[in-house]
From TrEMBL:
Keywords: Oxidoreductase. GO terms for molecular function: oxidoreductase activity, acting on the aldehyde or oxo group of donors. InterPro entries: 2-oxoglutarate_synth_KorC (IPR052554), Pyrv/ketoisovalerate_OxRed_cat (IPR019752), Pyrv_flavodox_OxRed_cen (IPR002869). The keyword Membrane does not apply. Residues 13-142 form the Pyruvate/ketoisovalerate oxidoreductase catalytic domain. Pfam families: POR. This is Pyruvate/ketoisovalerate oxidoreductase catalytic domain-containing protein.
Length: 142
């Protein structure tokens, strides 16, 4: 594993990105024996506004808890992709919802498109599990 892994989970409020970040950080810390920190940012809207969860995982003590350059970017909306893709490492992984992110920049050769929210709705009858499906994709790719 790289010394420090930085992830940005981005989309809109109500997609469960904060919870996804917490789950990811706790799993890395408790079950992976790593140092992990999760930070979050969201708009004043309860649902629909911008939402971002950042997760930093390291083998050593984390001196700075924010993402400097994302190794992994999850973009569940076009706005989130447009806003955060510029902060993706040149060798970083971009995971985007193919039904909501229609203009995908070619900033990385590791771009993965999945109909995440659509799959959640079809398989489980609700988009509320979009965050958990996203985590499964990220874990599967890494």
């Amino acid at each position: 594993m790289k010394e420090r892994i930085e992830m940005c989970l981005s989309g809109s409020g109500g997609q469960g990105l904060i919870l996804a970040g917490i789950i990811l950080a706790e799993a890395a810390g408790i079950y992976g024996g790593k140092e992990a920190v999760q930070t979050q940012s969201y708009g004043p809207e309860a649902r629909g506004g911008a939402s971002r969860s950042e997760v930093v995982i390291s083998n050593d003590t984390i001196d700075y808890p924010k993402v400097i350059k994302s190794d992994i970017l999850l973009a569940l909306t076009q706005n989130a992709c447009d806003k955060y893709v510029k902060n993706l490492n040149k060798d970083g992984i971009l995971v985007a919802d193919s039904t909501l992110v229609t203009e995908v920049p070619t900033i990385s050769n590791k771009i993965y498109l999945f109909p995440i929210a659509e799959t959640a709705q079809k398989k489980f009858g609700t988009k509320l599990v979009t965050n958990i499906i996203s985590l499964g994709i990220i874990v599967g790719l890494t």
